[in-house]
Amino acid sequence: MKKTLLFLLTLVSSLSIAYAQQREISGRVTASDDGSGLPGVSVVVKGTTIGTSTDADGRYNLRVEENSVLVFSFLGYLPKEVPVSGQTTMNVVLAPDAKQLGEVVVTALGIERSERSLGYSTQEVKGENLTFTKEQNVLGSLAGKVAGVQVAGSSGASMGGTQKIQIRGVNSVTGGGQPLVVIDGTPISNANFAGRNGADYGNLAQDINPEDIESVNVLKGPTASALYGIRGQYGVIMITTKKGSKGPKKVVVQLNSAFSLEKVGNLMPMQNLYGGGSTQTFRTLANGQKYVDGTDESWGPKMDGTNVRHMHSFYPQDPMYGQLEPFVAHPDNIRDFFETGFNLNNGVSVAGGNENSTFRLSYNNTYIEGVEPNTWLKRNNLGVSASLDLSKKVSVSTNFNYANNNGQRPSQGYYEGSRNFTQWFQRNLDMKRLKNYKYSDGTFYHWNTNRPTAEGVITDPEPVDWNNPYFEAYENINSDNRERFFGDVGLTYQVLPELKLSGFVRSDMFTQNIEHKEAAGGRYEDGYSVAKYQNREMNYEFLAQYTKDLNDFSFNVNLGANLYDRHYTFLSQATAGGLSSPGFYNIGASRERPTSGREDYPSYLLRKKLQSVYGMATIGYKDTYFIDFSVRRDHSSTLSDPYYYPSVSGSFVFSELLNWKPLSFGKLRASYAQAGNDVAVYATSLNYEVGGLYGNESGTTNTSYVPDVLNNPDIKPSFATSYELGVDLKFFNGRLGADFTYYQQRNRDDVIALNVSGASGYTSAYVNAGLMVNRGIEVALTGTPLQTGKFSWDVAFNLARNRGTVKELYPGLDSRLIESNSYSGVSMYLYSTVGQPFGTIVGQAYQRDEATGKVLLGSNNQPLYTTATHNFGTVLPDATGGFQNTFRFGQFDLGAMIDYQLGGQFFSWSRMLAVKAGLAPETAAINENGKNVRDPLAEGGGVKVNGIYGPGVKINGVDVSGQEFNGFVDAKTYYRTTIGTRVYEEWLYDASYIRLREVRLGYTLSRTALGKLPFERVGIAFIARNPAMIWQKAPDGLNPAELATGASSFSWLETGGLNTVRSYGVNLNITF
Amino acid sequence: MKRIYLFLVVCLALSGCEFDEDININPNKPSQASGGQLLANAMLSLPGLSSSPQGEFMAQYLSETQFPGGSLYPEGATSFYGLYSDPLMNLEEVIKADDLDAKEGPVANQKAVAKVLKAYYFWNITDRWGDVPFSQALTGLNNFSPAYDTQESIYNSLFVLLDSANQGFVAGDIANDIIYGGKVDKWKKLGNTIRLLMALRLSEVNATKGKEEFNKALAAGVMTSNEDNFTFKHLGVVANENYWYSQVGRQKRLWWALSETLVNTMKPTSDPRLAVYADPNEKGEYVGLKFGKLEGGAPAEYAMLGSDIWKQDAPVYLVTYAQVLFAKAEAAKRGWITGSDVEAKTNYEEAIKQSLKQWTGSDAGAGAFLQQPTIAYNPATALEQIGTQRYIHLFMHGYEAWAEWRRTGFPANLIMPSDKAIPTRLMYPAQEAANNTANYKAALQRLGGTDGLYGKVWWDKN
């Protein structure tokens, strides 16, 4: 690493020395309001076309004649004319044009434009706003900060887990559609290798070092992203990184160090009265000793201190072998499992430049020890960006980012890891005891084995369902690592002051390795699986930009071409039938022919190309009226024909005409666009599948089969058409700002694997189908309610409401299954249904009396339930948004970020099982008779049930239908057999929440306070990530904000997500 | 760099360049599949027709020791999609193919085997669900929502299909045959045996047709020994292991005891098969667990599913010679074939002998067993005796035993768990309501409007 750094430093300094200087005028253009350098200011010799524009730091240089006059002009500022008069350095200060308030924003393809000229909504988030509590995943740090951008996250326990973004609702009848992530113009992969179960490796955009980010612009709809064509249908997250700045001896070194402690929070409440077992009476051995059943539920005897044989007492290797110990609750057994983790993040950046070059280098190291035992993540990020003017007109630039990740992560879901604590567990288990999971002879202690014989012998010491959680943590290891490179090399040629040509070669590559070790002595046969994924995406790009002002008109024309080339392969293998020797984790150890492991194929190759040309023109009149046209032509190698994607938009800065003082800026905007999506590679080719093998000593028979999914050679790309209307207002010189947007987006002809009747011979077939209409409003308010000398208070609030309706599916088809979930033979489905919002949950509900709404009961007084046909409505929220407050008082700053979601729903498997397995508090609650619900009915126990006997229900031969029952039923039958298994209505929860996501209290030592110390600035801050859920509708122990998994692009299913993690720490920031 | 510019400029000018021709050829999947490989794949799905807790519960062979659920006959859909999209679609591909490779054996035999298997799968499907898509099924893109055919028409079509298979066989073995090692004479006998057993299924609904088909099948040549049995031989490797091994052996699920009904039928006659079907309890005794008991029972106290049955490479018996003999015994008793009671007795006794041989490897105990008063052939109760012995023989092929129970009412001692009657059909896949709405509704109309476990299939007149 050090060598690389040295090399790059040497390279850049030698380049700047080698470059021959020419005598010319140079200077810096700054803004009068804050003294910052103004980039992109046009500097033109009056009366000529000779000129240049300022760099990112406001600096320029230009060869001119002695007596010329320079005109400095920049959008939003009053122009200035300055005579040269023999000066060699001309620093110019521009004053903002109060009437022309409006910022320069980065738009599609990295083109910087004045905000006033944009006919669509775009929202920028500054880098410091993303890192103020040192969130590691850039997508996660966008949560709540951009109107209409919903971030579904996951628990911090996976250390870099999945963060999913949805812009303006779900825009595909399939539920798919993730935005394109673009960094400095380079589209990068945001793939996810995780599923619902196992380790969550997270989304790949997390390889961006958040400290490198200057700003993030979210292009929300097809209008904004029309220039990305096929890849921009679901919006674009545009990330711009920090750069060095030109100028003599301007070197800025920053050190950044953060340390935080990570602790679990929001543990699910549990009952502590009854322990492991299926009945309340202890089982006994032949010698009369009572023992704890090794079953995985807590419907057992009261934990009253009775001396019993615990499971470990049946292991002859155990010090407590054969002995009795009290049967008592361990109320904190779940908490005891978790450790206090930490997150140590250290970074350094060096930025600078000289007259003709800029340079920035950054390095960041992250080390996390997770809250789950034996889990950790190490990450290194190295970033270099540099630019060099080869001549007055030609410059080269590069961005280079390297990241590596090494992780050992916990499993989530079912049957792996520790998530069964809330699903199937015993409340009497002592975590300290479980921790000694390995005996000195190398054998393991498990709590969930089949029962001992009457003589007290466990014939099979391996568990039935659940491994000892420490066996999972220390023996069954998930490890993953990824090497990532992305970046670009560019050449820019300023042919004329108005005309710039540029070319870029962009690349994103990664190698991802994932392996899993399954140790001998647990529930599963020992084994090893390994997968290696390699991806290379190249983009070759050409762009011509022409800018010209003519009287009151301004013209901006861009023409470009792009060639995209992707090459992706993987190899995936897993041992079968066990390992040849325990602990030899290698495919070569496979006892039987290895399988393709975590993938469907042992080896895979994907090749794809995309040829694009595009053009865009903006015409402005009097800097007040603007109109934009763009068109892109994409020809994908997956399709036989090319397709065109047009857009048109316009804006009108009406404040120019109003001249009403409080309104500093007012703009109306409108746009229309079409964007598309692609067809998956090979989706048009017809193939067979490789089937299972049948092999014995006399040979192996290979088999093939007709695929279950029918490909379609006539498939077309899908189209999204969107309209957008909005108004942007700024009052009192920007003290108060308000943006309103209304949009409608129609996504048509999605490429979907249409579920068809299996009797057709296929379970699904690719077709173009569907029309999904999303309408929504977005409101973003910013304000500075207070601003006195030392004190300021800034507020940002946003709210988005989206209503999506599935308008059409396929002729004759009303519903399409998107996902389903089954447990214990009961299924729940998520459908797209015509005429309804996207994502309707269909499952088993209570049967209810139509007149009274009361639950119908059967002859055993237990509730009756419907088949899996009850429609519970959409999973999507009514509204999402965020609320951010920043206070500054002298050297102190206090920031708090809140994000929220209103409405939506999710199904919680963990809650259902906590009840089914007798772990949840209500399964051992006190009823209105003052008795425990588990007490016998005859003694006043039982769960209170009020309902009406269903049609045809007979008790002792007498028809009781329609009669009311108001009484008690057996708790185990009620919770375990009835509602915990069959009534999914009980386990659906409203996903509304208001979360305090980030808090920071900082103090900045100023230059003067630092005295002789060599620091420019020192900041220290206390930071907290995810410190509190302010309000949620779902019960404690669930986290509606952390439902994302790699498996699904939206969050409706909780099947054992990792526990919530709260982190608190300190951040030190030093600038030299 | 310059070349790229040049390329891009040229592309821009010509608005489109050609891609490499092979870029869309999927290198990850085969573009060809041989008839033999498709047939072999269809055979891999065969154990699923038998190895299913649901089938065992329908026939009340097994009781649940823990978590009683399926044995309480809960309402709920069972999907037939996998049977269509996996084995049947492969078979259809072979039947329709015009490019089968004779290197894998005579093309006619590949097709005839595919027809026999297709008939066998559809027979299972229609017996479980009743009316199902048949004539419009398996046409892919041509019809994504195939209509449901009546069971009667499916039976008629399958008789024709089996007849055509029988006619189609020529001399010459086929390759990739994981059932009979390529011996087509055995496939031919299997096809006719299926036809024989299907014909018997019509005893209550259309005896005339049943008798006719039965005799045609006999004439065409049915199984003549246990060597002809249609058996899926599991192997001692993960990829080809017995379903019950994955449950009991691999997952340590001591969930299944033999039902009290079955044990109490077999124990009094010292049935030699009991020791194979079950492992004794901790005390060395064979104690059956009452079927559908809500609280289950401790595995140590009951006769659990036998380790011979759940071992990794235990075979699955799908169609057996003993079934042929039971069928002939019944046919003789019914007068479908000649010989009446004498013929019935001979076949009945031979059936039991062959069953003992199949399950225990020997018929040495058969003589004594056949002397048992309840076992010895009794013309007065012959149909019940045949039905009960066939039930015992069909152990672990629950769906077939359940079908025979629905047809004949034997064995007569099955019970109603928690007052719930034994289902008479399976419910359609829930997705059909969305995927194939009109046809699904039409099929439901024939069931009286709603899907449920208690509608009766066409031949079920009992």
UniProtKB/TrEMBL annotation, chain A:
Which controlled-vocabulary keywords does the entry list?
Cell outer membrane, Ion transport, Iron, Iron transport, Membrane, Signal, TonB box, Transmembrane, Transmembrane beta strand, Transport
Q: Quote the InterPro entries the UniProt record gives.
A: Beta-barrel_TonB (IPR000531), Beta-barrel_TonB_sf (IPR036942), CarboxyPept-like_regulatory (IPR008969), Plug_dom (IPR012910), Plug_dom_sf (IPR037066), TonB-dep_OMP_SusC/RagA (IPR023996), TonB-dep_OMP_SusC/RagA_CS (IPR023997), TonB-dep_rcpt-like (IPR039426)
* Any Gene Ontology biological process: iron ion transport
Query: For the TonB-dependent receptor plug domain, which residue ranges apply?
Result: 116-236
Q: Which residues form the signal peptide?
A: 1-20
Q: Where in the cell is it found?
A: Cell outer membrane
Q: Does the keyword Iron apply?
A: yes
Kindly state one GO CC term assigned in the UniProt record: cell outer membrane
Q: How does it sit in the membrane?
A: Multi-pass membrane protein
SUPFAM superfamilies for this protein: Carboxypeptidase regulatory domain-like, Porins
Domain TonB-dependent receptor-like beta-barrel, first and last residues per copy:
436-884
Which Pfam families does the record match to this protein?
A: CarbopepD_reg_2 (PF13715), Plug (PF07715), TonB_dep_Rec_b-barrel (PF00593)
Indicate yes or no for the key word Membrane: yes
NCBIfam families, A to Z: OMP_RagA_SusC, SusC_RagA_signa
The text of the family note is: Belongs to the TonB-dependent receptor family.
> PANTHER family from the xrefs?
FERRICHROME IRON RECEPTOR-RELATED, TONB-DEPENDENT OUTER MEMBRANE RECEPTOR
What name appears for this protein in its UniProt entry? SusC/RagA family TonB-linked outer membrane protein
Q: What is the lineage of its organism?
A: Bacteria, Pseudomonadati, Bacteroidota, Cytophagia, Cytophagales
TrEMBL record, chain B:
Listed name of the protein:
SusD/RagB family nutrient-binding outer membrane lipoprotein
Taxonomically, the superkingdom here is: Bacteria
> What InterPro entries does this protein's entry cite?
SusD-like_2, TPR-like_helical_dom_sf
Q: Print the keywords alphabetically.
A: Lipoprotein
The protein's matches in Pfam families, at most eight in alphabetical order, are given as: SusD-like_2
Q: Which organism is it from?
A: Rufibacter immobilis
Q: Is Metal-binding given among the entry's keywords?
A: no
